[in-house]
Amino acid sequence: MVKFLDLQKVTAKYADEIHEAVLHAIDSGWYLQGEENKRFETAYARYIGTQYAIGCANGLDALIWIWRAYIEMGVMQAGDEVIVPANTYIATILALTENGLKPVLVEPSIETYEIDDSKIEKAITSKTKAICIVHLYGQCAYTEKIGALCEKYNLKLVEDNAQAHGCVFNGKKTGSIGDAAGHSFYPGKNLGALGDAGAITTNDPQLAEVVRALANYGSQKKYVFKYIGRNSRLDEIQAAVLNVKLHHLDEDVQLRKEVAKYYIENIRNSKIVLPKIFDWMQHVFHIFTIRCEKRDQLQQYLSNNGIQTNIHYPIPPHKQECYKEWSEISLPVTEIIHATELSLPMSPVMTIEEIKTVVEVINNWR
Ligand SMILES: *Cc1c(COP(=O)(O)O)cnc(C)c1O
């Protein structure tokens, strides 16, 4: 059996260090907003290459707080438009609608699955206030053209970096390219906690201050409430785990790249479209995605042969019941991706035997 992602093994790899860090946090008697948080925020800001990193409860909240902060700062208001890739995970979009902002769905490229920068300008209106890029599957979605559009139209650039910890564009980590970035440390992400966790990174001191307050009941000073916030903090035990795992992130990313390289060099089946890698620095393979016209048949065949796969994602946001008002929007590229995408087993703990098994079974599929 080849698991899609063996989280038990992912944790076991660093078990001694994690156990020690968690026990230390437990024994400290201090469980929120303490030393582990400070240590993680400092280390993560340094790793990403931003002035500030602010821990919070999860990746969705990280994005919610960025948009809320821009509203509190008077940069945006309810009803404003934000450009997003139509094929993203729902959280990117939930963060906008929760704040009364209007997501404007732009098609991805069928080559990269990232937002198609040639289709962005047509979607910009007088109400557009930002572009939200999503480094989907672990690949950098930023392009010089996107940067130029933000300049030209005076738009904020927000990055959803939930899937791309460790990814680099022109020497800069994703999460440090735009005005602000939301990060998720959901257990299955490239940098995963042992529960929910997230962070915001930015170089903007005002934004940093506002998001920190929003995630802490809207308070900057004990018992004084400036904003209508929520309790959305990163706890000390998760921060302790993240402090250990951040240390090993680059090594784990390298292992993911090796799995990807083996797949790309050895999978040979004319019915399967492999990812085209334009720059190995710019992909950290959170998800190794292939496409196949007979995706459901392939998935069943792989399952019959003991190989777990996943689909990212079976239903695009505009076809979800919660957004039924968008169901008539025409997004053919997005729909092709959702109908044909299949994600192969991918993690830093796969054995070479497992990787070879996946390749062999796929190559034998007729
Ligand atoms: C996982 C994910 C999120 C949300 O993160 P959570 O920590 O699960 O709330 C947001 N955006 C993308 C693209 C994701 O993959």
UniProtKB/TrEMBL annotation:
Keywords: Aminotransferase, Pyridoxal phosphate, Transferase
GO biological process, one term: polysaccharide biosynthetic process
Name of the molecule in the record: DegT/DnrJ/EryC1/StrS family aminotransferase
Pfam families attached to this UniProt entry: DegT_DnrJ_EryC1
Active-site annotation: K189
Database matches in SUPFAM superfamilies: PLP-dependent transferases
Organism of derivation: Butyricimonas virosa
InterPro entries tied to this protein: DegT/StrS_aminotransferase, PyrdxlP-dep_Trfase, PyrdxlP-dep_Trfase_major, PyrdxlP-dep_Trfase_small
Example GO molecular function: transaminase activity
Residues with N6-(pyridoxal phosphate)lysine modification: K189
Gene3D superfamilies assigned to the protein according to its UniProt record, in alphabetical order: Aspartate Aminotransferase, domain 1 (3.90.1150.10), Type I PLP-dependent aspartate aminotransferase-like (Major domain) (3.40.640.10)
